[in-house]
Design goal:
Blueprint: E1 2-6, H1 16-24, H2 39-53, H3 57-65, H4 73-83, E2 85-93, H5 94-103, E3 108-116, E4 122-126, H6 132-142, E5 146-151, H7 157-162, E6 165-169, H8 173-178, E7 184-185, H9 188-199
Parallel strand pairs: 1-2, 1-5, 2-3, 5-6, 6-7
Antiparallel strand pairs: 3-4
Helix pairs in contact: 3-5
Length: 200
């Protein structure tokens, strides 16, 4: 039985941190997993910048409320979900993802959680497990699923490569050049067709 595993940011919704960087006027926060392969390092760096500027969860959530899914994302998800089960596997956090899941029609998401002080300051983060995307795909395979995965960043490559079929979507030129064996698509129609063909 097939199950589709999709990344969230850059694939279905715009990058949250890039939107917040623009809103807050802090250009350093535009750095994402497309630029930094080490997620732990990236998040600790982000938390340091937030602390330096006195910004917390409330400010980020205010930005997230204004973010809409990428045009066509909900329709793409609905078509996939009519065909088979879909799980969004993301390195984002429940405190960020919930309003976006509402706009996408409440798909299933596996993500992480932030540690937040009473003041609203983000003090840390708790990952579900090490290499959570790869670990999730392997766990699904261990209970009889064939996974088909798609994402855009460094942190998606392991789950894409471990799956029965895997695709890059709206990825960077560097990631595409470094992984010439992975089919890369730019539109939801192309990705949908590739997934549908992989299921047959």
């Amino acid at each position: 039985m097939d199950i589709i595993c999709l990344d969230l940011e850059g694939v279905l919704v715009p990058e949250i941190w890039i939107a917040f960087a623009k809103e807050s006027g802090i250009p350093e926060l535009t750095r994402t997993t497309r630029d930094e392969p080490d997620y732990d390092k990236l998040m600790k760096w982000r938390i340091g910048i937030l602390k330096e500027h006195g910004l917390g969860l409330k400010e980020i959530q205010a930005t997230i409320k204004k973010i809409d899914p990428i045009p066509g994302a909900k329709e793409f998800l609905d078509k996939l979900r009519a065909m088979t089960q879909v799980i969004i596997i993301s390195d984002t956090f429940t405190q960020f993802a919930t309003p976006l899941m509402e706009k996408l029609g409440w798909p299933t998401i596996f993500c992480n959680s932030l540690e937040v002080a009473e003041s609203g300051e983000i003090t840390g983060f708790k990952m579900r497990t090490k290499e959570s995307k790869l670990a999730t795909v392997k766990a699904l395979q261990s209970i009889g699923f064939d996974t088909i995965a798609s994402g855009d960043s460094f942190n998606d490559l392991a789950m894409i490569k471990a799956s029965k079929a895997g695709f890059l979507f709206k990825s960077t030129d560097k990631i595409k050049a470094d992984n010439p064996d992975l089919p890369a698509f730019e539109t939801y129609d192309e990705l949908f067709e590739a997934i549908r063909n992989a299921m047959n």
